[in-house]
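User: Second chain of the day. Same drill as before.
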Amino acid sequence: MGSGGAVAAMRATVSSATKSVKQQNLLGAVRRAPEREHVSVTGAKNILLVGVDTRKNQDPSALTRSDSIIILHIPAGHDKGYMVSLPRDSYVSIPAYDNGKVRYRGGKAKINAAFAFGSQGLTGDKALSGGFELLALTVKKLTGITPDAGAIVDFQGFYNVVRVLGHVCMYVDETTKSVHKGRDNATGEPAVPYKLNSDGTVRHKIAGTTPNTYKKGDHCFTPAEALDFVRQRDLLQNRDFDYGRQRHQQQFLRAVLKQAVDDGLSSPQKLPGLLKAIGQTMTVDDGGIPLEDWVFAMRGIKPEDLVTLKTNDGKFHSDQIPGVGSVEILTELSLQMLKAVRNDDLAAFIQSHPEVVAQT
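Assistant: Same format as last time:
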């Protein structure tokens, strides 16, 4: 009875905490499970995590593209988590889609355009739902993986998470120069160090400024530094561009989770604000399984049990497509890895191909 009471108390606490998480139907026709009161979460699960590239003062009618696409695979044992990033420039077939406002005829394009095509003509929550659903349908068509749940992650929102924690410490695996933040050499005041193109790429350096630089090695990030670091891709030391940013975002998510467990969950003063801040960083579709059941089922997975995997060996395998430009082509090994995700056979795949594990 005591054990049963502890479980009930734990469920009640988790249920209260998850109320701060914004929930919305993102998967649409991709949704697998019907809504149920409480369920036992069994078997392997795949969760689609999407970071959306929105900019300050962006026109709400402008197309929004997905900035990062991560499949979080939980094997049937619920003892590990594997994060697989799909390159945003992957050249894929996007299925036809009607969001009720604009009909997309379908065709081949970069995978990050799927979110844009699904959300076009819509604003607010409807745009998020349309964009996410078409992206999920595209991922399913590409990989055969049907997401069991999904979430839109707002990296800007992690500013408040880091603010509650005070800082987040992690190992920076390559010197990273910021194109967004720096200082004026004459006054020492904050200044933008680079002029950017409309797509966020670098046009040229602004004279008289010095960019913020996060050197390789251990680093404890302030809230502003953390948000700036996870956005960088253009001036990375290893010139791995989007692959570097994908890896850094995965590392940052794991570092935040680790510090939240180590510092936040043990502090009654920090815990309420931390849960609220984390909840506000994402919009979640629970796939018909209540969030408290997800949390309860996955409670054995610790931050150090999250493994980051590399697609395309973390290197560009590009091609030029007329009218589209430079695109990414997924290698045969990457496609085999995605098949292992679909079949819940990643452990055996990694044993045969240890090089796919990112060093963190």
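The chain has two domains: 22-152+288-360, 155-280.

User: Great, on to the next one.
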